[in-house]
Amino acid sequence: MQFWLLLNFFLLVAGNIFAFGLFVSPVPTFRRIIRNHSTEEFSGLPYVYALLNCLITMWYGTPLVSADNILVTTVNSIGAAFQLVYIILFITYTEKDKKVSYPFSHMHLVYCSGSAICSVNQFFPLCSRQVRMLGLLLAVIGIFSIIVAVSLQIVNPFSRQMFVGLLSCAALISMFASPLFIINLVIQTKSVEFMPFYLSLSTFLMSTSFLAYGIMNWDPFIYVPNGIGTILGIVQLALYFNYKETSGEESRDPLIVSYA
């Protein structure tokens, strides 16, 4: 019993460490943005979705929703702080007069709580990127506040955990699915320039750690999305080692390209 408790704790701590590596991976990109005083063609949308995911998962890990998941709360609290800083920097360095249109077909929203973000996109079909990012940030705060308020009205602990857990699971799957367009780009170009190795490695290690932790605690809201993340991490690493020799130049920045 002592061994399994130690293993369980080790997996959770390892997941936190690898998640931290994932959270800091965009730092080189934002160093470039700050240096050039421009967001260029980078997209801020992934950071908005990641912030919503971290906030929902952070709430799921609190004792008010689920038991013995406090480290899930701590790692996602740190993640939310990083994403918020990234979004503020993105808004700060976005060109004020740059107009951009975002067709719905290029949205990455695949979970129900994203409908509010979608409505913001439709409300600002053609606007400055600064205004749009600020609107999305406010939408995320509003969505999270509604989720917290609604879940606190659910008296039954099991029903509350199911409600928040399903939203957390959907948000995690959405975040892990976001690199799919990068995988498609790697296959088409036969180059790993836009798929940094350490970003893919951090995703795989974090997902694997939380997958094992979720299985040991029999928590499907943790092991199902992280199982998907593990598979996608393996695919990314396999593509990296397959195409790294044919890449003309390997990027040092974890680029997030806007296809909108």
TrEMBL record:
Location within or outside the cell: Cell membrane; Endomembrane system
Lineage: superkingdom: Eukaryota
First-listed, main subcellular location of the protein, grouped into a coarse class: membrane
Membrane topology listed for this record: Multi-pass membrane protein
Transmembrane segments: 6-24, 44-62, 74-93, 134-155, 161-185, 197-216, 222-243
Any one GO CC term of the record: endomembrane system
Swiss-Prot/TrEMBL keywords: Membrane, Repeat, Sugar transport, Transmembrane, Transmembrane helix, Transport
GO biological process, any: protein homooligomerization
Gene3D superfamilies, per database record: 1.20.1280.290
Example GO molecular function: sugar transmembrane transporter activity
InterPro entries associated with the record: SWEET (IPR047664), SWEET_rpt (IPR004316)
Similarity field: Belongs to the SWEET sugar transporter family.
Its job: Mediates both low-affinity uptake and efflux of sugar across the membrane.
PANTHER family linked: BIDIRECTIONAL SUGAR TRANSPORTER SWEET2, RAG1-ACTIVATING PROTEIN 1
UniProt protein name: Bidirectional sugar transporter SWEET
Source organism: Citrus sinensis
